[in-house]
Amino acid sequence: MAHGWWMAVALLGCGTSYAAGDFTDRGRRVELRHRSFECVDVRLQPYVDRTVGSRFLAIDYEIGNRCLSPARVDFRAVTVFGQFDREMAELPLHDWRGEIVEATLDGRAYAREALAYQPPGATVDPLERVCIDLNGLADGDPVEPVCFAEENASLKVEQPQWEGMPWGHRREGR
Amino acid sequence: MTKSVVCSLVVATGIALIPAATPATAQSCGSDSSPSDSSSHDDDDDYDHYDDYDSSSSGDVPAPRKVCRDATHLTGFENCSRFGAGWNSPWPALRLEVGFVLRRVSLAGTSLEGTAEHEGRNHRYNIVTDEDDGPSLLTGGLNLRLTSMIGRHFLVGAELDLAGGPAPDAETERTDHQVDSHRVVTAGGGFVVGLVLPLGPLRLRGEVMTGGQALVVSGTSQIGDCIVEESTATGRFLFEPRVALEWFVAPWVSFDVWAGADLIQRGTLGGGIRLNFHARSYDAVP
């Protein structure tokens, strides 16, 4: 019985929980896919889901709470823009079941969600660039968008640029 | 599997592992019961784990379990899961606390009288202690609590404790009547309210437990060749202010040490150490 108890304590006590720096390799390198709010860190990667296909752009979000207290998280506030044939267009969140709601991420907790975004055309195939404005996802100061460019049939992260982006004017208003 | 689910499993395991209380027994001379009837052989150490499998299946092959697996984790296209499953916490910030408790139970002003039946007649006896100015018992046992934080600074909940220890001697009316007390068992419980002060990774807590406690003293009564098992019980109220210091070793696990003194039964002191499992990390305090 005692053995079982200590095993349980070890499982819980030594298990992983989120800590500051987990998304940035403990600060040893700059992670362009990573943004930090007051308590919530976000890391993301867009991809094309094999099962769903190219009808939707999928974005894999990892979120971690650096604080001990719970944090509000609202994925509906994220804005995604895609560049198709040199034209930027907003990709609306695909939530036909209405299941994406404002949520709570507990202190030091980690979560992962993949969300689908609807391209303006039938497929995401001509996608040249995608930029994700994370402001509003969690409480904190405004953060720069995370941008990815198509390169050799995959989406590679690039330095974000406010200039020339469709939400550039919104930055000043925040 | 998320940490919260693991925590819930451990909590459930913890509840299952808490040993059951052994009820006090009393029998008169001439009873058909034999000592072997009340004894039980604990084979836990020899228990094999094949019961983890479906015993209705043939042979040693475990029965197949239905597992729901999604082809994609993309929200809106999952059949087995939904957005926020496992991390968006809708459940309250409950705490299950399990620990060891040591008590000095004051018997001052407490009556522990009993009667033993021998050959159809009742014979009175009285449990006493050797201490003239502060008769007391020393008990040790388990403490179980279910509590919840309210906001950042308040805690409410309920608790139970079950403890035991050696019993004091007994006085009898007849010189040929001998009562040997074997053990005392205390069972208590009540409601807890507390004030919490966060101190970095620690939490200092002042709290009050209000409730009651039952004391059961059991032993044997002997007159001549007639020996019977006998027990006597009494109840009392508790109003116990306490101080406690809590330390989180992980977001979902903490330890605390506590000490308190009963204000109704002066001289009754308690203290212990507890292992706490939290349904929400750090009790989800804002």
Short description:
The complex is a heterodimer of chains A (174) and B (286). With 174 residues, chain A is mostly beta strands.
Secondary structure layout plus pairing:
The complex is a heterodimer of chains A (174) and B (286).
Chain A: H1 2-13, E1 34-36, E2 40-47, E3 57-65, E4 71-73, E5 79-84, E6 87-90, E7 103-105, E8 110-117, E9 127-133, E10 146-151, E11 154-158, H2 168-173
Antiparallel strand pairs in A: 1-2, 2-3, 3-8, 4-7, 5-6, 5-9, 9-10, 10-11
Chain B: H1 3-17, H2 35-38, E1 94-106, E2 113-118, E3 121-127, E4 136-150, E5 154-166, E6 170-172, E7 177-199, E8 202-223, E9 226-250, E10 253-261, E11 269-278
Antiparallel strand pairs in B: 1-4, 1-11, 2-3, 3-6, 4-5, 5-7, 7-8, 8-9, 9-10, 10-11
What does this structure look like?
The complex is a heterodimer of chains A (174) and B (286). Chain A has 174 residues and is mostly beta strands. A 5-stranded antiparallel β-sheet of chain A has the order 6-5-9-10-11, with no helix packed on it. Chain A has a 4-stranded antiparallel β-sheet with strand order 1-2-3-8, with no helix packed on it. A two-stranded antiparallel ribbon of chain A has the order 4-7. In chain A, a hairpin with a 3-residue loop joins β1 (34-36) and β2 (40-47). Chain A has helices at 2-13, 168-173; strands spanning 34-36, 40-47, 57-65, 71-73, 79-84, 87-90, 103-105, 110-117, 127-133, 146-151, 154-158. Chain A contains 2 helices and 11 strands. Helix content of chain A is 10%, strand content 36%. The model of chain A has no long low-confidence stretch (mean pLDDT 83). The longest helix of chain A has 12 residues, at 2-13. Chain B is mostly beta strands. Chain B contains 2 helices and 11 strands; from the N terminus they run ααβββββββββββ. Chain B has helices spanning 3-17, 35-38; strands spanning 94-106, 113-118, 121-127, 136-150, 154-166, 170-172, 177-199, 202-223, 226-250, 253-261, 269-278. In chain B, the strands form 2 sheets. An 8-stranded antiparallel barrel of chain B has the order 1-4-5-7-8-9-10-11. The longest helix of chain B has 15 residues, at 3-17. Chain B is elongated, with a radius of gyration of 25 Å. Mean pLDDT of chain B is 77; it is low at 1-28 and 30-57. Chain A binds chain B through residues 1, 4-5, 8-9, 11-15, 17, 49-52, 56, 58, 68-70, 94-97, 99-101, 103-116, and chain B through 3, 6-7, 10, 13-14, 17, 71-77, 82-84, 86-89, 249-253, 275, 277, 280-282, 284-286.
